[in-house]
Design a protein that fits this description.
Length: about 100
């Protein structure tokens, strides 16, 4: 399910002025809690996703820190870069492993 509160889906600007969008998905899948942070720039030229399972999942404050780091650090973003289909809310609403 999509995390629609606590400002996780606010657009954010980096120091160059690029606007970044985020959506956080979370749910229990076969008894395992999973969180995913999807991110993309305004032009959708750079997209990616971080997936955290079980003991890797984070409290809301730590999720916000991860999002801030994605905005600030291009090398960190590059580690999680992957192609995504849009609209994210429709394509990734149900859990499926993403290769």
């Amino acid at each position: 399910m999509w995390w629609n509160s606590q400002n996780l889906d606010l657009a954010r600007k980096d120091v160059t002025g690029r606007v970044w969008h985020f959506r956080v998905w979370h749910d229990h899948v076969q008894g395992v809690y999973i969180q995913r942070i999807f991110f993309w720039d305004e032009a959708r030229a750079e997209t990616g996703m971080i997936e955290m399972k079980a003991d890797q999942t984070r409290h809301i404050s730590r999720l916000k820190q991860v999002i801030a780091k994605l905005v600030k650090d291009p090398q960190y973003r590059a580690r999680y870069a992957r192609s995504m289909d849009f609209p994210v809310e429709h394509k990734y609403a149900q859990y499926e492993p993403i290769a």
